[in-house]
Amino acid sequence: MPSTFSLLLRDNRLRIPAATLVALAFTYASTVPYQSIIGINELGMGNGAYSALVFFSAIVNVTTSLTLGIWSDRLKERRPLVLGLSVAGMLGFGSIAIIHGPAVFILSTLLLVPMSNSTYSLLFASLRARTNQMDRGRGAAITAMVRALFSGSWALAPGLIGLYLVNSPSMTPAYGIAALASCICFCLYFFFAPGNGSSGPAPDQAGFLASLKRIFVPYVLARVLVMSMLIALQRLNGMLSPLIITRAAGGTVVDVGFMAGLTAFLEMPFMMMWGMAQRRFRTVHVLAFGALIYCAYLLMLGFASARWHVYALLLVNACGVAAILSVPITYLQDLIADRPGLGSSLISLNSFIGAGISAGLFAFGTAITDYSGTAFVGAAAGVASIGALLYLESGRRQAQQPA
After folding, report:
1. What's this model's pTM, rounded to 2 decimal places?
2. Residue 340: closest CA among 135, 157, 72
3. Looking at the chain, which terminus has fewer C-beta neighbours within 10 angstroms, N or C?
């Protein structure tokens, strides 16, 4: 792993996207925890209106990611796109911080902020364009390390921002921090990434619709759906664990915050561990094993009846979720390996579908049982997804065998 980190530091085409992703994490961590507070509590939006805003902003995000992903494969470099999305972030986050009004909040959250969030998949496309020229195992290790750095930044930011805003009457200054982070993203690419992503194969000249159709090929779509089910487990836990901690386990919101922060910090070494594992084992086997650990965590979470039970599951949680958050990046990019932009845009599509599946699992589980029982439902769905994943990959091996 030290050699992987040193390679990350030496190679400008890896170092700049990685550093930009660390800065980009602050835009997420500065705003996601406070967005509902601002929209509902401070600006008076109704629950239904806010839910609709979140849903349509997610559609804008996945549409932008797919469109720019396809477009980026036709360009010699992705630098102008990253710069443009960084400007969208500066305008979107900055306007909410400066102009405290519902119209600006809705417009920015619906359009500019989702565009800024699309930078995530575009930066991983830049990384993939470079790692495509390396040994596959080393490329996977680099991707896992960069995702770990992103998680570390995510874990650090909320606490620092919480301390900064502890006596503030409004949460909107957090959006000013996100605007500053977007500015740092812009500066990193403007000053230090000339020609980033321009090396490698010639730009792809396939039409937009022809590229888009590749997503809906059964081979790709089936695997995206399975990956979405796995990411849905993490989203489901995000909804369930605070409720289980504060109800069945008898904890408080302080315990919820500690669990979230500690899990995010512990994800980092586990992500690096899974990255090293991908250098020795097939990505699908690493992912299946990690997902199985997470299913075991959900199963045990359903039995939690005291605070120490939840804390005792901390390492299991971090180990499993690290695999679910980091390994699918490489897996999804491999589905369309010859087009880094299109393949990386599957990350956003996977997240979008996963959010819908997690909402469905939560609704189904809570309709037939309690929150603890819903954790059992999630574990069962996860095991079924792992089985589907292994079946799909087994079928692929059979198809590749000579007649």
Report:
1. 0.87
2. 72
3. C
